[in-house]
Amino acid sequence: MAVTRIHMLPLNVVKRLSSIALLLPVLLLLSVARVHAQPRLTQPEIYVGAYGGVTVSTVFFSPKVSGMDDLLKVPLGWNAGAVFRYGAHKVCALQVEAGYAQRGWREYSEKDGYDYRRTLHYVQVPFMSHIHFGGEHFQGFVNLGPQIAYCVASNESGTKQATSTYQYRPIDHKFDWGVAGGLGFYGKHRKAGVYQLELRVHYSFGSLYNNSRAQHFAASNTLTASLNFAYLWQIK
Predict the structure, then answer these.
(1) Which CATH number applies to 11-235: 2.40.160.20, 1.10.3210.10, 2.30.30.370, 2.60.120.10?
(2) What is the per-residue DSSP string for 27-82?
(3) Is this model's pTM higher than 0.70 or not?
(4) Lowest-confidence range among 35-49, 63-77, 124-138, 178-192?
């Protein structure tokens, strides 16, 4: 007897997507208004540098995959890359990055005896608005903008479960797009450079697997958080 499968997003995923969709236009409009309201610098500031840090990530599957409910069991990874920042206004700048990041998910059940990890290796390029505030030498900042990425490699380890196996196939979509946002602070000195710490979150709107009615998954979106340290120096 054939079983009809209804592909529906979990309520928590729907709420997340709705919140992001409602919040992004407001933040972008506020950013644009803030840029036009601020005086321009007499000479643009250009910074280049590098960043690195740790990542944690998971994938929101629909239907759900067993063993992924405990967020304390999410896999650790790392990311690193280069930063270019161009500022023509007093509190706003454009920041572009090119880097590498590890994403993926973990399925764990001590009771059922499996512990599986999939690691996806991405090259990624975020285009972000950089809004900073504070004093001359110590400032806080907000980064927000779109991000594109491409999966260059994938590897797996551990013991697979037997109840759900669709997620063990190679991913269907290597190209990824989404939105990234971060909060942080930095110390700034004209001669010593900029030392900054940032907590960033990235949500992928692209699915890892095909989500048509003929496929198993209706959604397979990645959520990644990273804590990064960066050093930048100013180009005169």
Answers:
(1) 2.40.160.20
(2) HHHHHHHHHHHSPEEEEEEEEEEEEEEEEEEEEEEESPPTT---GGGPPEEEEEEE
(3) yes
(4) 35-49
